[in-house]
Amino acid sequence: MAATKEAALEHGPDGSHEEGGDLGDEAFELFTAAQAHEEGGDLDEAFALYERIEALALGQSPAGAGERRDPRWKFAELVASDEPPLHVLAATAANCAGGLFLDEGEYTEARSWFQRSLQWWDAAVMARLNLGNIEREHGNPEVAISLYSKIAEQEQEWASQRNEFTAKSDADAQAAQDSWISNWLEHPLRSCGQQAAYLIALMHHQWGRYDAAVPYLQKYPVKWRIGPAVWKCVGKSSEADPGASLEVDQTCPVRLVKGALNDELLAALQHAFRPSSTFWDGTNYCDGAYFSFWYEIDRKPSNLVEQAIQELLSHLGRDDIVGAEWWVHSRPSGRNLGHQLHFDTEENSLGGENETILHPAVSSVVYLTGAATGAGPTVVFDQRVQDVTPGKRAFVSNPVDGSFLTFPGDRLHGVLPGRPPKPGKRTRQAETKLRDPTSEPHRLTLLVGFWTREVQKIGKRRRLGPCAPFPRASRGVDWPSEIDTIPLSDESKASTSGSSIVPLPVHRVPEGQAWEAVPPGPHPPQYETLPDGLDQHFFVADHAEFRRRLLSTNAGNDEDDDDVDDAEANIDVEEENNDDDASGDGASSAK
């Protein structure tokens, strides 16, 4: 969702507006009505009302449509107005209108409205952030950094003006505190500034500008970052990455192979989970709630994924696996910010005073699509949930369609964003609309956790929750039919023998270079936390943070650090025989 109405809804004032007299009152009423229509799904009516607000402002502007920007950006001038001026409403309405087009993939129209928002008011930082995101995802990343940098500059400029103004007298300070600008400008400015600084730091890492990223990381209480040696592995071939050892090492705990799935099964999986598949809407995947399905391996496969699991299992070289937990992920290639670092756990075992953290014996990734379109790599750290110091080793696997990645199931792992277009190399996707968003290339992966205990029996199971039973197709639930089993030819059955497995190189980062300390900045951190929704744990305050977040996220704890430390003493971490090398055939490894 674009940065559109959040500030207006959450921080916007209740009352009328003075600029333009009755026009200000009318504009605010129109804006309130437009927000209600947008919330109710009547987007056409919402857009019409946003247009009417701009028309009112144009009629009030002495310069007319040719020059509509209101130059008032000085704190003293803005605080003199008791309520948001008409041009602020016009800028906010234009940003909301742009958000409607952005949500539909209409990038040309969205960009036009965001630019109009800034023409009304140069402090319309939500519009500037939206423009930056369009450029980062579809256009010129260098332009994106320029837009993000402008937000950071404006936040600093605004803080300076505010401090100068409020230092004059207590009355001036109280006027600033009570003014509408604290809600309509300062909250959005701080939120957008927090996001912009993070995105600048992340993009600098993607481009290899590690020193340039440091001043932006110092805006947060960050002490560690994923090391440059790890980022250098993103998207590079073996020959192009002298900083890591890329030979196929049979003792490596992280292994990537090709040939674990036969071509018929691979093609069927790619089709079953294509972007237009009913699976995504049927499971409400876009809502972001975590769910997975459980398969008892001694049962006959009832769907396509269970067929695939039987083939994958034969390459683990283990006879103690009793079940497999599986789920899928689909992300637009080259557009997303990666997937946060995390531990694979059994969520229902968490919670309570003496909770147990359970990990699968083997974690695995089947790369289905996205290798040719800049899909991000999987990174695995030699770091467990009980560790409070950074892992010394890291392993990076760049996607290869049809390949099978395995690693010990108790290790910290995630997905780094793919390498962006080279600076200065512009794409034209942002100039038009994606005619069919489902045809956009995706990084599609099948994730399987192999367990040596029946964790599906822990706690109460939900229809779409952790280790849920796979549903049957019915009149109300038709998506399971997308994943029906397929008949396999004798040739396909024979194509995944041990002799057909081809080991692929995994980037092995030199020991001690997985994480790097971030030097302290010249000033205290500007923000207390990294931005919610963007933080992927690539930059962290300390490595005990992973345990704390695991507790608070899965068990619903909101304790402060001291309380969390006390709670951690009661955690029992049980490992599912997560040996560094528990595979039997050398073709893949235990997770």
UniProtKB/TrEMBL annotation:
Residues 7-20, 428-439 have a biased composition (Basic and acidic residues). InterPro entries: TPR-like_helical_dom_sf (IPR011990), TPR_rpt (IPR019734). Residues 1-23, 411-439, 474-504, 551-591 are annotated as: Disordered. Pfam families: TPR_8. Coiled coil: none annotated. Residues 557-583 have a biased composition (Acidic residues). This is Uncharacterized protein.
